Amino acid sequence: MSTEVRPDTFAMVEGPGFLRILRRELLLAYRQRGDLANPLLFFLMVLALVPLGVGPAPDMLAALAPGMIWIVALLANLLAQDGLFRGDFADGSLEQLALSPQPLYFGVLAKVLVHWLVTGLPLTLFAPVLGLMLSLPESGYLPLLLSMLLGTASLSLLGAIGAGLTVSLHRPGLLLPLIVMPLYAPVLIFGTGAVQAAIEGFAYGGQLAVLGAMLAAALALAPLAVAGALRISLSD
Amino acid sequence: MNWQWFHRLGSPRWFYQKTQAWLPWLAIASVVLLVTGAIWGLGFAPQDAKQGNSYRIIFIHVPAAVLALVGYYVMAISGAIGLIWRMKLPFVVMRAAAPIGAALTFVALFTGAVWGKPTWGTYWVWDARITSMLLLLLLYIGVIALGQAFLQERTADKACAILALVGTVNIPIIYKSVDWWNSLHQPATIKLTESSSIHPSMFYPLLVMVVGFYCFYAWSLILHTRQQILVRERKTRWVQQMVASGSTRLVEEGGKA
What we know:
The complex is a heterodimer. Chain A has one domain. Helix content of chain A is 79%, strand content 0%. Chain A is built from nine helices and no strands. Chain A is elongated. The relative contact order of chain A is 0.14. Mean pLDDT of chain A is 88; it is low at 8-14. Helices cover 73% and strands 0% of the residues of chain B. In chain B, helix 2 packs antiparallel against helix 8, helix 3 runs antiparallel to helix 4 and helix 3 crosses helix 6. The radius of gyration of chain B is 21 Å and the shape is globular. The mean pLDDT of chain B is 85. Classes of the chains: A mainly alpha, B mainly alpha. The A-B interface holds A 161, 165-166, 168-169, 172, 175, 178-179, 181-183, 185-186, 225, 228-229, 232-233, 235-236 and B 83, 131, 135-136, 138-139, 141-143, 145-146, 149-152, 155, 158-159, 162-163, 165-167, 169-170, 173. Chain B: Residues 14-185 form the Cytochrome c assembly protein domain.
């Protein structure tokens, strides 16, 4: 039996549409505090396997650190994507959101923003600690933080497209990772590129600029695709 | 401008009837072009100064890679047309294009690996072009898998169209990857705007092969689409009448089957 108490109407909290959904989502996230630690635990768990798998030699770990941290952050983000719309789809509030007079775009944006606040942001803030454990060279910390700050937001937006497309499926299984992974790849390339460049003593502003551009494009376009995907899933 | 042809595209029956006349021509053109190109390229084109005979796989590798990328646009644009004008036929074309594109991408990757062994000394490198072609393969497989996951064909069509459209952002990156990142894969040798860096004696057989692959692609796409149309329209009268007559040719309205 689910002990979760869901705010059943959007009218329960006051304010304009976008903020109302934002507050509802934050409230939901707060009521399921236990789930908040899941991506972080996954992050820690998988990275603890790296020294066990490749050996604890610090130079080896230092060479792997930027890539490993980024890959595991990406997987942790992917893990959290599946639940993004599932609860709302199951109890019908997604339908209400789609029927409401305000554009679905903003509803999606609010939900993705909260998703990022509870997964991407904690992962970003946690990443330097794991960098320390994997003996990431000193010059890599700032670019790691900055690239993950920009990159995880793009990941949340792109992943939401996959989540929207698969929300009506009973057993999405590997489908969500399969359709989202090719979209995640460019973010990973430039994210690790920034950290790698900084460690090797090069300027990393270019990679961060590309990540920023990706985020800007994703911010403008991804919610449209998500809204379209959700309307299709709702008509299934 | 007369838009009648465009509206007709919405009718699977019209498409089925029209294309049955094109099929033999496309089949002849692809066989003739592919056989000519293959004999010309494999037998008569000169050896490469550096790579010897091993370069000859280019006559399959390049056309397959070109069509793999073009096929993605065919799929995505058909999906967009289907979404915008809510037509049945473009969705069928889109769904038919996915497995063909995936197969061509695989052929490009496979021939690339075979070519890589004698020239680069390895079957696989994580190079920009190769990695991005692998992503293209995953995009195709994603569209196929998403299409199979839905119970309702209509929902599956629209979902695939959205995924295909979102995936198009990767295509220019794949196409330009060899120029943007200085990678192991050689830069494009055939250019439309400047003179190509490939000798005419090798370029012309390659051109024949590319055109042959285009014909072959169109042929298989139409065949696949026609087969899909029959499956989807199996409950309609025209399909049932045609099947009952024991033929796969659609006779004009009013004609005796």
